[in-house]
């Protein structure tokens, strides 16, 4: 039990200063990068614009007409999640996206916004989504119940997916690094090589999970 407590303590947002200052990791991008980098043409700004364009081309086909107006929100969300996911791989930097409170706070407002807007805008259209075409009469009440539950748990599934992938990767890195204490000195190079490969994999997972969350959010909003 003590071993599991120590293992999961890497996700505890506690600070030796007596306050939960690790949450400041979410704003490190603003602190590290001067505001000048965002306003003056530079390589950093060019990279951000390139990421925005590539991401927009990916989600543009599944966006609704109204969704294209607010596409900048989804692009900013992608960049924010990607930055926090990758920043969490830096030693001694807390991974904010490994906590359900943060991921749920990102997924819930967007879902609540376009979900409530859809019901107010076109009630009949939203009701039609609860009843797939061709459903037998006997199954209609069950389909309405299933589709309603499916719509209500969407922000939770988005949050849990991102949180679980971040936790799994960090736990794997922690377990592999702890193997150095068990194996002999000759196995250190193997453990280091495995760690390097896992870090590269985690960078890919960080980008993929950011992409998945944003694409699913756009897909849900396109139903409105």
TrEMBL record:
<comment type="similarity">
    <text>Belongs to the ATPase A chain family.</text>
</comment>
<dbReference type="InterPro" id="IPR023011">
    <property type="entry name" value="ATP_synth_F0_asu_AS"/>
</dbReference>
<keyword id="KW-0472">Membrane</keyword>
<keyword id="KW-0812">Transmembrane</keyword>
<keyword id="KW-0813">Transport</keyword>
<keyword id="KW-0406">Ion transport</keyword>
<dbReference type="InterPro" id="IPR045083">
    <property type="entry name" value="ATP_synth_F0_asu_bact/mt"/>
</dbReference>
<dbReference type="Pfam" id="PF00119">
    <property type="entry name" value="ATP-synt_A"/>
</dbReference>
<dbReference type="GO" id="GO:0045259">
    <property type="term" value="C:proton-transporting ATP synthase complex"/>
</dbReference>
<feature type="transmembrane region" description="Helical">
    <location>
        <begin position="192"/>
        <end position="220"/>
    </location>
</feature>
<keyword id="KW-0375">Hydrogen ion transport</keyword>
<keyword id="KW-0066">ATP synthesis</keyword>
<feature type="transmembrane region" description="Helical">
    <location>
        <begin position="100"/>
        <end position="120"/>
    </location>
</feature>
<keyword id="KW-1133">Transmembrane helix</keyword>
<protein>
    <recommendedName>
        <fullName>ATP synthase subunit a</fullName>
    </recommendedName>
</protein>
<dbReference type="InterPro" id="IPR000568">
    <property type="entry name" value="ATP_synth_F0_asu"/>
</dbReference>
<dbReference type="InterPro" id="IPR035908">
    <property type="entry name" value="F0_ATP_A_sf"/>
</dbReference>
<keyword id="KW-0496">Mitochondrion</keyword>
<feature type="transmembrane region" description="Helical">
    <location>
        <begin position="28"/>
        <end position="52"/>
    </location>
</feature>
<dbReference type="GO" id="GO:0046933">
    <property type="term" value="F:proton-transporting ATP synthase activity, rotational mechanism"/>
</dbReference>
<feature type="transmembrane region" description="Helical">
    <location>
        <begin position="162"/>
        <end position="186"/>
    </location>
</feature>
<dbReference type="GO" id="GO:0005743">
    <property type="term" value="C:mitochondrial inner membrane"/>
</dbReference>
<keyword id="KW-0138">CF(0)</keyword>
<feature type="transmembrane region" description="Helical">
    <location>
        <begin position="72"/>
        <end position="94"/>
    </location>
</feature>
